[in-house]
């Protein structure tokens, strides 16, 4: 990494101006077949920032990236690079480097020649070219394979070569489209750290696309979360995780996923607000400022979100804000175990896979069930289910607040291998100050608190 800093600061024979900021103003993309892929997006990426575009497959992430690169024209709106309107600027004039998921390298060229290729095109002399390649390659940990052909490399090495080729010209803006999705899990985690380390060291503005929330939360300075072409929320990982702007963002981020329970609101003026969860209730004292915001929904149903970290197992006779239930099943993850409790409440299931919600055909429902089980088991999204569901996707967007219901299985964290089993009763204390509230349409009920 240190080597990179050295060559970055010292050599500048290309002497090119590079892009350092991006702004999207009301950018919309409708494809020829009528697909609304991107819907009025506004987004600013600051100089040197690592921005992650996060969302399920098909939500429009690549289309946004391709519009920044100039590979697609926006149907409406403006793409600004360094504050200048760039809608009509050809891709090669944008001084942008892009790395894709399927990093195509030239198979007949050596690793060194692959990395050097952009410099050769730019007419850089062989000597500085060779030095730059050596520097970049050793920074990326592939200094010893420069003479090999891509076919003789591992997946991780090939991806490093692709990165080397992209950064060798020192772009001001680095676009990466799911660059790690073809790699296995361990390598992904390793390269994740390397990529964010490298781009930060270089100070290069980066827009990084992924459907993997773990990548987004660990790598980003800020995360922009998309759903069906619409930007849902933008903020630091702490902000979007700690105070999600919509029900969708709340459901998308975090593992285990946030518990989302349907609640009926009853106001007892000057005393408290009852959140009726079915067989049990929680109470917001009237002097809690959040109770005033929630009180507007008197007689209506809202969604109460509680992450596992807001729930602590307690003895069954504990007083206070406690929910009681029976363990439906347990999952052991090594470092922790998760208990899923039946508490007689109704869970709200957000259409997190980006497909249509209304009346999914039976097969698709089965697939989604399968995918959510797989997801629980593996902590990973099952892309196949998404692809299968994608067949029914239309350009007519359903009501963004739509969601379906099922009996709640309240996810609670326990110590590894606890002395309880399925069927056992369990009581959990609820940290009331860590609750999230959403209206029926999925918007956050803003209670002026974080
Ligand atoms: N060239 C195209 N013509 C028509 N529809 C497209 C085209 N490219 C992408 N789409 C559609 O636009 C939507 C967004 O696609 P994309 O940006 O690739 O999503 P993501 O990268 O988030 O998976 C999807 O519904 C996709 O099928
Ligand atoms: Mg994509």
UniProtKB/TrEMBL annotation:
GO biological process: carbohydrate transport
Key words of the record: ATP-binding, Nucleotide-binding, Sugar transport, Transport
Top-rank lineage group of the source organism: Bacteria
Species, as recorded: Micromonospora cremea
UniProt cross-references to PANTHER family, sorted A to Z: MALTODEXTRIN IMPORT ATP-BINDING PROTEIN MSMX (PTHR43875), OSMOPROTECTIVE COMPOUNDS UPTAKE ATP-BINDING PROTEIN GGTA (PTHR43875:SF1)
Higher taxonomy: Bacteria, Bacillati, Actinomycetota, Actinomycetes, Micromonosporales
Ranges in coiled-coil conformation: none
Domain ABC transporter: 22-253
One GO term describing the cellular component: ATP-binding cassette (ABC) transporter complex, substrate-binding subunit-containing
Gene3D superfamilies in the cross-refs: 2.40.50.100, Nucleic acid-binding proteins, P-loop containing nucleotide triphosphate hydrolases
GO molecular function: ABC-type transporter activity; ATP binding; ATP hydrolysis activity
Protein name (Swiss-Prot/TrEMBL): Multiple sugar transport system ATP-binding protein
InterPro entries according to UniProt: AAA+_ATPase, ABC_transporter-like_ATP-bd, ABC_transporter-like_CS, ABC_transpr_MalK-like, ABC_transpr_MalK/UgpC-like, Mo/tungstate-bd_C_term_dom, NA-bd_OB-fold, P-loop_NTPase
PROSITE patterns in alphabetical order: ABC_TRANSPORTER_1, ABC_TRANSPORTER_2
Pfam families reported for this sequence: ABC_tran
């Amino acid at each position: 990494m240190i080597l990179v800093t050295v060559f970055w600061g010292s050599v500048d024979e290309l002497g090119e101006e590079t892009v350092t900021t991006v702004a999207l103003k009301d950018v919309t993309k409708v494809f020829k077949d009528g697909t609304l892929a991107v819907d009025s997006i506004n987004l600013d990426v600051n100089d040197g920032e690592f921005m992650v575009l996060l969302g399920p497959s098909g939500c429009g992430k690549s289309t946004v990236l391709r519009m920044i690169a100039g590979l697609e024209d926006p149907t409406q709106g403006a793409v600004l690079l360094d504050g200048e309107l760039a809608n009509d600027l050809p891709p090669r004039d944008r001084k942008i480097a892009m790395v894709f998921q399927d990093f195509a390298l030239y198979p007949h060229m050596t690793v060194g020649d692959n990395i050097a290729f952009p410099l050769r095109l730019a007419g850089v002399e062989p000597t500085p070219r060779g030095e730059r390649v050596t520097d970049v390659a050793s920074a990326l940990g592939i200094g010893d394979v420069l003479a090999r052909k891509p076919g003789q490399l591992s997946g991780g090495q090939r991806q490093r070569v692709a990165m080397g080729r992209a950064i060798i010209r020192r772009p001001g803006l680095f676009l990466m489209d799911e660059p790690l999705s073809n790699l296995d899990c361990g390598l992904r985690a390793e390269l994740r750290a390397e990529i964010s380390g490298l781009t930060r060291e270089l100070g290069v503005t980066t827009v990084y696309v992924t459907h993997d929330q773990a990548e987004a939360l660990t790598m980003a300075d800020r995360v922009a979360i998309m759903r069906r072409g619409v930007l849902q929320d933008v903020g630091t990982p702490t902000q979007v995780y700690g105070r999600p702007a919509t029900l969708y963002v709340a459901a998308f981020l975090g593992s285990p996923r946030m518990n989302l329970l349907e609640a009926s609101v009853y106001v007892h003026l000057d005393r408290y607000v009852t959140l009726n969860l079915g067989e049990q209730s929680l109470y917001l004292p009237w002097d809690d400022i959040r109770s005033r915001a929630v009180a507007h929904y008197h007689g209506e149903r809202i969604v109460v979100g509680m992450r596992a970290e807001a729930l602590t197992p307690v003895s069954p006779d504990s007083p206070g804000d406690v929910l009681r239930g029976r363990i439906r099943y347990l999952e052991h993850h090594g470092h922790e175990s998760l208990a899923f409790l039946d508490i007689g409440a109704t869970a709200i299931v957000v259409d997190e896979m980006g497909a249509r919600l209304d009346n999914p055909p039976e097969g698709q429902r089965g697939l989604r069930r399968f995918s959510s089980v797989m997801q629980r088991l593996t902590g990973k999204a099952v892309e196949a289910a998404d692809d299968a569901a994608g067949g029914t996707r239309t350009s007519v967007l359903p009501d963004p607040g739509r969601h379906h219901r099922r009996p709640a299985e309240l996810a609670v964290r326990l110590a590894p291998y606890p002395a309880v089993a399925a069927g056992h009763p369990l009581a959990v204390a609820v940290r009331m100050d860590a609750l999230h509230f959403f209206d029926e349409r999925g918007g956050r009920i803003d209670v002026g608190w974080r």
